[in-house]
């Protein structure tokens, strides 16, 4: 394979999932600036390893690289006790705004929706990374359990357990103790 073929394959396999890559990096790092660095490094890793792509699910392959790059980048560039969180990226905020506009368009409904969205963002930011990771992959990226298990390199039962616990912790954080 020549460089042109590698570039074509990279463009076909990795680049269509660049937005998902950024969203995952942003959720894992908690920072837009760090996510940009992570995705840039992940892109380089993906390009170098494009010949190793065996033709499976390109989205899962891309997100696996981003996930692994995120953890190695964070370990190298941040003290383990430091945890940063920021709001959702603009695309996610826009999507939430559009869905809330589909509901009643009263000022009261808009205010309630905005407060609820902020509560959920804050609650997700407090989740431990392993729980937040599976929740983001499932609820934001819409991946099935098998794809999450492949990306996170976990047994499918662990994915299901973490997802259930993440949802329960999120519900407790938003609504108080749900027991």
Describe the structure.
The structure is a single chain. This protein has helices at 3-13, 18-29, 32-48, 58-77, 90-102, 107-126, 129-140, 145-152, 156-175. The chain is built from nine helices and no strands. With 179 residues, the chain is an all-alpha fold. The termini are far apart. The protein folds into two domains: 3-77, Rna Polymerase Sigma Factor, Chain: A, CATH 1.10.1740; 90-175, Winged helix-like DNA-binding domain superfamily/Winged helix DNA-binding domain (Arc Repressor Mutant, subunit A), CATH 1.10.10.
Mean pLDDT level = 80
Total helical elements: 9
Q: What is the count of β-strands?
A: 0
Total number of distinct structural domains: 2
Please describe the biggest sheet, giving its number of strands, its sense, and whether it closes into a barrel. Answer: none
Along the chain, the helix and strand elements come as HHHHHHHHH
Q: For the record, what CATH class of the largest domain applies?
A: Mainly Alpha
The separation of the N and C termini measures: 58 Å
- Poorly predicted runs of 5 or more residues: 81-88
Approximate helicity band: over 70%
At CATH's second level, what is the architecture of the largest domain?
Orthogonal Bundle
CATH topology of the largest domain: Arc Repressor Mutant, subunit A
| CATH superfamily membership of the largest domain | Winged helix-like DNA-binding domain superfamily/Winged helix DNA-binding domain
Rg, nearest Å: 18 Å
Overall morphology: globular
The secondary-structure class comes to mainly alpha
Strand content: under 5%
């Amino acid at each position: 394979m020549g460089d042109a073929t590698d570039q074509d394959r990279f463009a076909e396999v990795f680049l269509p999932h660049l937005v998902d890559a950024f969203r995952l990096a942003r959720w894992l790092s908690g920072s837009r600036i760090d996510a940009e660095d992570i995705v840039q490094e992940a892109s380089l890793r993906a390009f170098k390893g494009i010949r190793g792509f065996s033709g499976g699910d390109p989205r899962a392959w891309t997100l696996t690289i981003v996930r692994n790059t995120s953890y190695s980048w964070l370990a190298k560039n941040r003290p383990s006790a430091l945890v940063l969180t920021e709001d959702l990226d603009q695309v996610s905020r826009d999507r939430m705004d559009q869905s809330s506009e589909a509901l009643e368009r009263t000022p009261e409904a808009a205010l309630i929706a905005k407060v609820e969205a902020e509560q959920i963002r804050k609650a997700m930011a407090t989740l431990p990374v392993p729980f937040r990771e599976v929740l983001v992959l499932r609820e934001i990226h819409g991946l099935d359990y098998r794809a999450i298990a492949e990306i996170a390199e976990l047994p499918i039962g662990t994915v299901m357990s973490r997802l259930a616990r993440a949802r329960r912790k999120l519900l407790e954080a938003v609504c108080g103790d749900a027991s």
